[in-house]
Structure formats: structure tokens, C-alpha cells
Write a structure and sequence with these properties.
The chain contains 4 helices and 28 strands. It is mainly beta and 350 residues long. The strands form 5 sheets. Strands 1-24-21-26-19-18-17 form a 7-stranded antiparallel beta sheet, with no helix packed on it. It has a 7-stranded antiparallel beta sheet with strand order 2-3-4-11-6-9-16, with no helix packed on it. Strands 5, 7, 8, 10, 12 and 13 form a 6-stranded antiparallel beta sheet that branches. It has 2 domains: 171 residues, Jelly Rolls (Sandwich), CATH 2.60.120.10; 151 residues, Jelly Rolls, CATH 2.60.120.
């Protein structure tokens, strides 16, 4: 039975933000407000000009973020190396678990970034509260300062804002080259996925794969950005090794999902909405607009998600097996094309 429960959908763009001030907002999507989630969570960051998501790290999860609009500066610190770079729309960035990072809006328009985690209840710690937790003499000592020193001038904070105002926007830092001891080092943590050649191109649409081996730094997370032609179809399929969290960037998308207990839902999502598919569940997507293209970011809880499509699956079994299963004579399936491969994206021929 098809029940329109909408238990799989979360309206990320229009839900109440847990963090909000005049500089921006953070809307979180976790086990508390989206109970169907398993091994995945997410948030939507919006920053006005000059707003900063403060430096922090995630205790129990890596982060994979995708820039939807605006221009920002991001710094990642880990393993005694610092990487500062610019985010543009289409930029995909991976932050390993425990690495420190921030995002600062250096453009004139609002920046919007979707962030996905490999935990349904991600936890984080801020750099500012970490500093304030230490005695001043310890802070001065590790920096080689005599006490009383610079850190004695820091006050005691009672609360820590997650979004703050930058004192100035330094445009000279927009495209800083990363360096260590004066030598340039490459930045493995980010790629401009939006400008890469699509790995999948069919009459039904294209897919840019932010997964291994195309983005080698990834661990535990990945994303496919799908541009679907009008009525374009993502082949019905399963992911044995990954949950899937789909965010609609543009257009409207119809989906069907089937679970192991016969639970089934067909529904439509619009821009800014998410639907979650647990690992192994059967599902498909379709651009339900007959005249406009649609774009979806499909995030996965694996850096190399497996795709088992219906076309290859049915093609793998004999006419005898298919006939017995569907209660038809075996020759009924003589006209079925045998395509033991993934179609991935198909045009709607009806």
C-alpha cells in the first residue's frame, strides 16, 4: 500500500534554524527532528556579507559540504598544515573528522552551503571555547610568552556564538596559495565539482561524481550532483553499502521508495527539500517537470557507493526464473533487452 506519510522528507530550506542572528543562520537536520536518519545528518549554512561560521571541529564525524551560492573563504587546519581557499558555487569540500575549519563570507551576496555528516547526531567543539577552557599561564607558556602575557587580556566568556561578524573583509586573501616553509602545497580537500566534465552523460541528464576515485581525499562520504532533463529518470536501484540523502537544488523531483517491511512512499519534493533513503532500500527519482530541468545533490554515507540498478538486475536472470516470479510463460520475456549494466539516467520515452 502506498502511504503518503512524508516520513522520508525534510524541508531543510524552510525549517526553523537552531542558530540565527542578523549575520546568518544554521538549520540542522539530525535524528531529533528527522528520525528516519541513520549514519547521516546535515545542516544548511547561510551567511550574510562579513558573517563567519566560527572555527570548530566535529568530534564524531567528517563533513562534506557543497557551495550553492555566494563566495566565501574557508580555512582547514589538520595534521600541522593549514589550507585557506575560496568557495564558489559548485565547490565541494571534505573536512576529515576532527579537523578544524571555518567559513567566512567575503562576497556581497548571501552564501549558502549544504553540509552533510556521517553521523545522525554530529557533535562539535568550538576553538574559542577551547581556548577559554585553559588557564592563562598555560596559554602563554605554549606560545613562549611571559606571564602576564597576551592571553591574560582575554575575558571569560559565558556563551559562544556560532556565527559572528568579521572585523574586516580582506580581499587580498581570496586566493591565497597554501604554503609550508615557503613552499606551495596542493590542497587535497576541495574541488570545483560544478566545473568538472560529467562522468555520466545520457539523453536523460548528466551526473558529476564527487566520490572515489574522482576525489581521493574522501572517507565515508560522497555526492553525485545530478542535472536531469525534463522527465529524466534515475534508474530504480539500491545502494548496498550506503544511505542516501537527496537535496533538491532546483526544480521538482518525484521519488518512490520501498522498504523491507513493504513500507512504500511516492511523493514530490521541491527546491530546498531533502529525502533520505536507508542503505539497501529500493528507490528511484524522476524530474517530474515536463518542461524544465532539475538538479539534485545525492549525498552518500560511503566514499564509493555501490549502485545496483533494476535493468542489470532483471537482465541477470533467465526467462524461466522471471516467468516463474511474475507468473508468466518464460517466452513472455523473450523481448526483454539483456543489459547487464547500470543505465543510471534514462530519458522518459512515454
Amino acid at each position: 500500500m502506498n502511504k503518503q506519510t512524508r516520513q522520508w522528507i525534510f524541508d531543510l530550506d524552510n525549517s526553523s534554524s537552531q542558530v540565527y542572528n542578523l549575520l546568518g543562520s544554521i538549520t540542522r537536520m539530525d535524528k531529533d527532528n528527522f528520525p528516519i536518519l541513520s549514519r547521516m545528518g546535515g545542516s544548511l549554512l547561510r551567511l550574510k556579507k562579513g558573517g563567519i561560521q566560527v572555527p570548530h571541529w566535529h568530534v564524531n564525524s567528517a563533513e562534506l559540504n557543497y557551495c550553492l551560492s555566494g563566495k566565501a573563504k574557508m580555512t582547514i587546519y589538520g595534521n600541522a598544515q593549514e589550507f585557506t581557499f575560496t568557495l564558489y558555487p559548485g565547490q565541494l569540500t571534505f573536512v576529515p573528522k576532527g579537523y578544524w575549519h571555518d567559513i567566512e563570507n567575503i562576497g556581497n551576496e548571501e552564501i549558502k552551503v549544504i553540509m552533510v555528516y556521517e553521523n545522525e547526531q554530529p557533535q562539535d567543539i568550538g576553538v574559542a571555547e577551547s581556548v577559554h577552557s585553559l588557564p592563562k599561564e598555560i596559554l602563554n607558556s605554549i606560545f613562549g610568552l611571559k606571564s602576564p602575557g597576551l592571553f591574560d587580556q582575554l575575558g571569560i566568556e559565558e556563551s559562544y556564538d556560532e556565527i559572528i561578524q568579521t572585523q574586516q573583509v580582506d580581499q587580498s586573501e581570496n586566493n591565497l596559495a597554501n604554503s609550508e616553509n615557503g613552499k606551495n602545497i596542493s590542497n587535497p580537500f576541495t574541488i570545483n565539482l560544478g566545473s568538472t566534465e560529467p562522468q555520466v552523460q545520457t539523453p536523460g541528464g548528466i551526473a558529476r561524481l564527487g566520490s572515489n576515485p574522482y576525489f581521493p581525499i574522501l572517507s565515508g562520504l560522497s555526492v553525485f550532483v545530478l542535472d536531469l532533463e525534463p522527465r529524466g529518470i534515475i534508474e530504480p536501484h539500491t545502494h548496498p553499502n550506503a544511505g542516501e540523502l537527496n537535496y533538491v537544488i532546483e526544480g521538482k523531483v518525484r521519488f518512490t521508495i520501498l522498504g523491507p517491511k513493504g513500507e512504500m512512499e511516492t511523493n514530490e519534493m521541491v527546491k530546498g527539500q531533502v529525502f533520505f533513503v536507508p542503505a539497501g532500500y529500493f528507490h528511484y527519482l524522476e524530474n517530474s517537470d515536463s518542461s524544465k530541468k532539475g538538479t539534485v545533490a545525492s549525498f552518500f554515507s560511503n566514499d564509493n557507493p555501490q549502485f545496483l540498478g533494476l535493468v542489470g538486475g532483471l537482465s541477470s536472470y533467465s526467462n524461466t526464473v522471471l516467468g516463474s516470479m511474475f507468473k508468466k510463460d518464460s517466452d513472455f520475456f523473450d523481448g526483454l533487452p539483456r543489459l547487464v549494466k547500470n543505465v543510471l539516467i534514462s530519458a522518459n520515452t512515454s
